[in-house]
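Bug report (template v2)

What were you trying to do?
Predict the complex of my protein with flavin-adenine dinucleotide.

What happened?
Run completed; filing so the output is reviewed.

Input:
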Amino acid sequence: MTDEAKDKKPAKKPIPPRMDMPRQDPKARAKNFDEVALGYSEEQALAEANRCMMCKKPKCIDGCPVEIDIIAFIQLIKEGDFIGAAHKIKEKNSLPAICGRVCPQEEQCEATCILGRRHEPSAIGRLERFAADYELKHGNIEIPEKAPSTGKKVAVVGSGPAGLTVAGDLVKMGHEVVVFEALHKAGGVLVYGIPEFRLPKDIVQKEVDYLIKLGVELKTSFVIGKLMTVDELIEEGYDAVFLANGAGLPYFLNIPGENLNGVYSANEYLTRSNLMKAYKFPEYDTPIKHGNRVAVVGGGNVAMDSARTALRLGAEEVYLLYRRSRVEMPAREEEIENAEAEGIDFRLLTNPVKLHGNDEGWVTSVECVRMELGEPDDSGRRRPIPIKGSEFIIPIDIIVVAVGNGANPLVASTTSGLETNKWGYIVADEETGRTSKEGVYAGGDIVTGAATVISAMGAGRRAARAINEYLQNKK
Ligand code: FAD
């Protein structure tokens, strides 16, 4: 070897660009409810897995709220052991096909990925989805062995991600678990809120079926606080109760005209479409007003889902009215991009101040004011300030309000000795979910306020551990 050659360090392998995930064409998908993102093929997953630097001291795991061993599952994908990869993820996350689709990875594992410091980060969420889907398609979903029966009985209120997680964990620990769900289908926001084109409902149903196979009993159309109270559940012999009733009470704008017909909360609009299948009209005859011009107010995931649903229900113009600028939008970047590509008309720095209607009581237009951004407020985002005299009118047929949700007071107000905070959320210990009431635990959005699927699941997992310990010590 020449001296010159010896001096040369081995050239670093160039990092290829992040593997894009195929999606339905924006024009076609704006007219159907099929899933937008199509998932990686095996070749694409292998190529993306090979981009991972396999860091000895990885940071991605620190960014994952449930601490999935990300390096280990990507290594298994690299080796072609896709089912093994799914099993590895499931050691920490029982709903990977769901989280791979809806988790805000760009703010979590992918935000801390070391590769992301100089290049695009590893597509961890897409790889998680790939492994989970592969297992759903090709794997034998085995029912794990359960611990021997403890003779203890737990009631779970609500069947969203927090309730499903706690139920799965506790039943495997040998406890009898009954989930009480107010709606006629289990899954919480995963079935009534997030639309089919983002999260196919058969994936959620498979997870629910799996829990039933494990032995979880599900009582749907059962509203706790109306049919039975938490106190009555305890009197009836439940040894512990987990409250996972979510934050399903919609906030409104409190502006004149909000009682007109054609004004929907995003909750109602999405529930009618997703759960009651208005989008399959006339096969399902669910009343939902079809408008050619639809305004959606808000800038979060719920607003994006509502706007994109309106488009798919046949609207010609869908305006997204948001009082701040695009940078401050709380929705996932991927969903904002999808909405833009599909043709949603973003009216930024725009705030509705009044709704106008006709003699029959239907909304006909929204009066808005233009906004400018001032200093950051308590949320850390720049405060929107109305520009005097800038009012203008947008003609509309429907308006959907997606400005957030709060706690429904029903469960807390019918439970004796249960502490809530000033917003009505249940006060519970972060590590255990323990509330002020003996034997009653809580987690998910009803404790934190509207958050994420993975944080609700994390709360369910921690509470299951604590409830198990409580039951073991209970006489
Ligand atoms: P929920 O999922 O709200 O489930 C609560 C369940 O309790 C419901 O089924 C409800 O019917 C039931 N219930 C309520 N009261 C009673 C009662 N009295 N008796 C019996 N049952 C009752 N998060 C993400 O991470 N990524 C996303 O992309 C995303 N998109 C979203 C889109 C929309 C439209 C919405 C609304 C939310 C979105 N979120 C997203 C937030 C996420 O879905 C929630 O944070 C999560 O579902 C909270 O889980 P949970 O189990 O606490 O409650």
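What did the reviewer find?
The mean pLDDT is 92. Residues 453-473 form the longest helix (21 residues).
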